[in-house]
Amino acid sequence: VTAKAPIDFYFDLSSPYGCLASQKIEALAHRHDRSVEWHPILLGVVFKKTGTGPLTEIPLKGEYSKRDFLRSARFHGLPQFEMPARFPIPTQVPARLLTWVKRVAPGRMVPATKAFFHAYFYKHVDISDPEHAVALLAPFGIEGHAAHAALADPAVKDALRAEVDGAIERGVFGSPYFIVDGEPFWGLDRLDQLERWLVTGGF
Amino acid sequence: VTAKAPIDFYFDLSSPYGCLASQKIEALAHRHDRSVEWHPILLGVVFKKTGTGPLTEIPLKGEYSKRDFLRSARFHGLPQFEMPARFPIPTQVPARLLTWVKRVAPGRMVPATKAFFHAYFYKHVDISDPEHAVALLAPFGIEGHAAHAALADPAVKDALRAEVDGAIERGVFGSPYFIVDGEPFWGLDRLDQLERWLVTGGF
User: Which residues of A touch B (CB under 8 A)?
Assistant: First the structure.
């Protein structure tokens, strides 16, 4: 029996649709005997490549998107959040922490990711602040001193940079972005196509 | 009995997702006793307002989108098209013709719209060419001489301009874009939310 390849899930921690997708992807994957490989990326870096910018700052589209984030949460049966007053935020700090946790304590990386998303979107904690971000890892037994040291470690910065560069090389330009057996799916609203892909093996 | 308000359907004739949505929206509306009001618009004008541009010209996103147009057609059980070699095209000519047909022969406006979408995406006819566009109206009994006269009529240009300005005032920034009882839905991939909105009266 050959194990099926994992679903690659790319996300930015400041992405509302990424936050919603993070609450759906595991159950979806589980229905089809897949695992999920979680990849924190930095949309700010991606936007330099694509020449685009944050959705909410585009005239007309920005106002619509704020409405659509919340309606999409309700549509998918997920808890609705209020938009954080500070949005978007730079996500280097929490993404570096996740990159490090993924290496030193891989089993805690997914719970830590969910804690960051929850804190930012549902509790309006500024996770770009190292003190806040590090504190959110404590419940998972991740010691503050070690986490702060990781944030200052050039090897951790390099690892995240390599992750983002690798994502761009694979064509990733948004969040959430999924790759299943080589097939790319962008957006919370492609989970339906992604699931059919898993069922049919391609259509 | 009060008649339910129509679904407003805004589209650009050079929009792949608009073409796909044009093949889905009537059956959806019919299931919920709604009519559809078809509004040709010009994305080129909208893009000046939003500061954005054609999806297919954005690095990374452009390549993905071409794949997604075709996969979305298959996902929705619609005939797949090949991308026209000339894409996008300016759509003033067919949009002006539809604006005029809507006024002088309203019952033929929707069939004419479908004929334009079909010719451009499935037959690769350049519908920005007045000769081609006018010829496509002949099967509906719309005489070529009158159609050419309409294209030269400043009142028709003004009517389309007013339609586009009105769309932007209502927040329309893309194609397809729907408004149902004041609620906006952007994209082929929001037909699911639109339908639930019709079923539930809002969620």
Answer: 46, 49-52, 58-61, 63-64, 67-68, 71-72, 74-75, 168, 171-174, 184, 186-187, 189-190, 192-193, 196, 203
